[in-house]
Amino acid sequence: MIELDNRKALGATFQTLAQDFLKAAKAKGATAAEIGIDKGTGLSVAVRLGEVDKLQYHRDQGASVTVYFGHKKGFASSGDLSPQALADTLEAACNIARYTAEDEYNGLADPDLMARDIPDLALYHPWDVDAERAIAMALETEQAARGHDPRIVNSEGADVDSYAGLGIYANSNGFSGVTSSTRHTVSCAVVGQEGSSMQRDYWYSSHCRPDRLESPAAIGTRAAERTLRRLNGRSLSTREVPVLYVPELAKGLVGTLVSGISGGALYRKATFLLDSLGQPIFPDFVQLSERPHLKCTLGSRAYDAEGVATFDREIVADGRIQGYFLGSYSARKLGMQTTASASGASNLILHDTGQDWNGMLAALGTGLMVTELIGSGINMITGDYSRGAAGFWVENGEIRYPVEEITIAGNLREMFHNIQAIGNDVDLRGRIQSGSVLIGRMTVAGQQAG
């Protein structure tokens, strides 16, 4: 079983180490200090072509410490949690702080914002799986994919991963919190061939609870089906058409929004969404919520990396930006208050407009369904967007043929404004939960003559 032995005792040990560190930092003259300590254990198995390719057990631990001398800051880390190693790490952080320039925005988060009542978010669910069983599951996953169709001619393998971790964050403002969590994943990627056409694709399932994973057979079959449907792809002539992002790619659009309204981009003035609070960036039916306290959900957290209590909030309401993603440093630079986002976003939910997958295809009508994006051609300052892509050409709401070797382009501000519908086919894996997203018009460029 992949779990942490005696979590309660381990948490108490980490609490003692953290409090001893904070006392030592104060004794050295630090005006403020913070420490994070983590320990984890895991199992990773990979098979390829019916043979074991990897078997690894993980045991990781580490500590990261920050000290402040006024507005001077020093940071150091260590993979050794012994008292002497932490003392040496503290000394290194203090030496760094003494020689760094002052930054008036440095410092701990406001003590009034610290999490006090920490809810149990049910994130820790160890998996009763050993190496033998994990290998058997990986083999079953790969075999389901390879045996699905004779056109599956090769495999990149199947993986089974399980991880359990515990961490503490404490600071000299009186905050101390211990969290534990698990993450389990089964994945598979295969190669298909028909004539001269060769393609690869994958599928995976991930959850903090092992009983919520898809079955090995379902994962392998889905990987094979996704691979086969891409065979014999065509290019397209250049055109302007509606574009439908499948859920796993639509989450990337939400992630781009998060990047554009995050503190670092805002105070550096390196985003096309500068001064966007209250502005109608999307159509008025678009609603985006942050729900950090959902139980048994991978993106949940009771507090951020600074100990600030997380809370439910609306990021986009009726198409208008309602909030940024700020840690304490960026908030001070902007003259605002932290949004408990020092660890990033927590469970972003893009609310649907009622259509299921078939309804989204019908809404697309004739246009491009995108299933893969290649490269990172996004200019966050201007919003210009250009990505290599692959997917399917759709006519009258029906998939006609796969397409490849194309580029889709537009401007993110215009793309956001031209969202036509959001599906209820939600991908629940990860911190962003989104269904498919239909954008009214983008430029599609390919190698085929017009």
Walkthrough of the structure:
- This protein has helices at 7-27, 83-99, 131-146, 216-228, 247-260, 263-267, 328-334, 357-364, 412-417; strands at residues 32-48, 51-69, 72-78, 152-171, 176-194, 197-207, 239-245, 288-290, 313-317, 320-321, 348-350, 367-374, 384-395, 398-411, 419-422, 432-433, 437-446.
- It starts with 6 loop residues before the first helix and ends with a strand.
- By secondary structure, it is an alpha+beta fold.
- The protein has 9 helices and 17 strands.
- A 6-stranded antiparallel β-sheet has the order 3-2-1-4-5-6. Strands 7-12-13-14-17 form a 5-stranded mixed β-barrel.
- Helix 1 (7-27) packs across helix 2 (83-99) and helix 3 runs parallel beside helix 4 (216-228).
- A hairpin with a 2-residue loop joins strand 1 (32-48) and strand 2 (51-69).
- It folds into 2 domains: 7-228, PmbA/TldD fold (2-Layer Sandwich); 233-450, no CATH class.
- The mean pLDDT is 95.
